[in-house]
Design a protein that fits this description.
The complex is a heterodimer of chains A (about 160) and B (about 210). By secondary structure, chain A is mainly alpha-helical. Chain A has one domain. Helix content of chain A is about 80%, strand content about 0%. In chain A, helix 1 runs antiparallel to helix 3 (about 50-70) and helix 1 crosses helix 5 (about 120-140). The longest helix of chain A is centred in the N-terminal third of the chain and has 29 residues, at about 5-30. The radius of gyration of chain A is 18 Å and the shape is elongated. The two termini of chain A are about 30 Å apart. Chain B is of the alpha+beta class and about 210 residues long. Chain B has two domains: about 1-30; about 40-205, Glutaredoxin (3-Layer(aba) Sandwich), CATH 3.40.30. Helix content of chain B is about 60%, strand content about 10%. Chain B has helices spanning about 1-30, 65-80, 100-115, 115-125, 125-130, 135-145, 150-160, 165-175, 195-205, and strands at about 45, 50-60, 85-90, 185, 190-195. Chain B has a five-stranded mixed beta sheet. In chain B, helix 2 (about 65-80) links the parallel strand 2 (about 50-60) and strand 3 (about 85-90). The longest helix of chain B is centred in the N-terminal third of the chain and has 29 residues, at about 1-30. In chain B, about 45% of the residues are buried. Classes of the chains: A mainly alpha (about 160), B alpha+beta (about 210). The interface of A and B includes residues 27 and 33 of A.
């Protein structure tokens, strides 16, 4: 197997892993009390209660939907960009909390029952960002995007 | 090109719809869980056998539980005849390192001195001070004294781990029901996860 082929497979696996992580973290938040996530968001001391409320409503579903589309490989280009922005946003939140020395009881990353120290989450997110970059660059061959494009392009011919 | 885009949009819409349905079904399955087992007397507040019986799984180190504790106190204050509140322990030790010990300590306050809520309320009130503090025992002693309970008696009970099994029993129950967050309530047997669902469940029961 050529290096390119192996890289495509690995990139696809990376994309699937990021998708699975997003689905899992979204699902956990959806199944937990809304106020748990709201209090996690508020502990970063960046937004007020109103924004925290709407973020807690929307963000978990956004994570699930981006995760599903990433795994399937639909709109892969857009979804990898969206996931990249999402993780960058998380990184900024974590970084400012570390710099300001905020006492974040629960990072809110995987609901209220699972939480890593924010430094660990920051490092983990860097790995996910790398995975997303690889998925963006090389995972097209294992995607529904390619399957659909190939099918309808050949039909048109 | 347009056709490809349309097919992609339809496929994406269908898969997201399916994901939404699956998640809603999984969440709905939780609502089939029920708990009617009452707590020991010293862990019950309000009027016994009231119209609305609430079982509360709580963690002394959880911020949302501290907020809900305040809400529940008000429920009992303003509607003393309408509610029976049963407290159960569900310390989330993987994120709150001393919450299990806190539960054991407050349980001792209930067993030894019948001051479960007096001490427990102070644990909630001062949560930020002790939840991640290595000197938590000293702080526990301070709150116990403040609540007017016998510190030595409770400390002895705590050191002898007398109430560990009682706390563990609640945790095992919670685990059996696959509860994964605090506070989780059962309002007349029906699950309500978090404060917002609790308020809705109470409204429903009151309307009956």
């Amino acid at each position: 197997m050529s290096f390119e082929k192996r890289r495509e497979i690995v990139s696809f696996l990376m994309r699937a892993m990021v998708g699975a992580v997003l689905i899992y973290s979204g699902y956990i938040k959806i199944s937990e009390p809304l106020e748990s996530f709201i209090s996690s968001i508020l502990s970063y001391k960046v937004v007020g209660e109103n924004i925290a409320y709407y973020s807690a409503l929307i963000l978990p579903w956004a994570e699930v939907y981006i995760g599903v589309l990433l795994i399937l490989g639909l709109f892969t280009n857009w979804m990898t960009k969206a996931a990249f922005l999402l993780f960058c946003f998380f990184e900024i939140l974590l970084l400012q909390a570390m710099i300001r020395g905020l006492e974040v009881v629960n990072c809110g990353c995987f609901g209220s029952k699972h939480s890593n120290p924010i430094g660990v989450e920051f490092a983990l997110n860097l790995i996910w960002l790398f995975f997303i970059f690889m998925a963006y660059k090389y995972s097209y061959h294992f995607s529904l995007d390619k399957f659909i494009e190939k099918k309808y392009n050949s039909n048109e011919k | 090109m347009k056709k490809i885009l349309v097919v992609k949009i339809i496929t994406a819409f269908l898969s997201l719809f399916l994901a939404t349905v699956i998640i809603l079904i999984l969440n709905g399955l939780n609502s089939a869980i029920t708990d009617n087992q009452k707590s020991p007397d010293y862990r019950i507040e309000g009027k016994k056998n009231a119209k609305i019986v609430i079982i509360e799984y709580s963690d002394f180190a959880c911020p949302a539980c501290a907020n809900m504790n305040f809400y529940i106190k008000n429920l009992i204050k303003y509607f003393p005849d309408d509610f029976e509140i049963n407290f159960k322990h569900f310390p989330l030790t993987n994120i709150h390192p001393y919450s299990f010990n806190a539960a054991v300590w407050v349980e001792c306050a209930g067993v030894e001195e019948n001051k479960f809520f007096e001490v427990g309320d102070l644990f909630f009130k001062n949560q930020k001070e002790w939840w991640n503090n290595k000197d938590y025992v000293k702080l526990f002693e301070k709150y116990t004294k403040e609540a007017g309970a016998n510190v030595e008696k409770i400390k002895k009970c705590f050191n002898e781990s007398k109430t560990v099994d009682m706390v563990k029993k609640d945790i095992q129950n919670a685990d059996k029901m696959k509860l994964n967050s605090t506070p989780t309530f059962f309002v007349n047997g029906k699950i309500a996860v978090g404060g917002m669902e609790l308020v809705e469940a109470i409204k429903k029961e009151k309307g009956k």
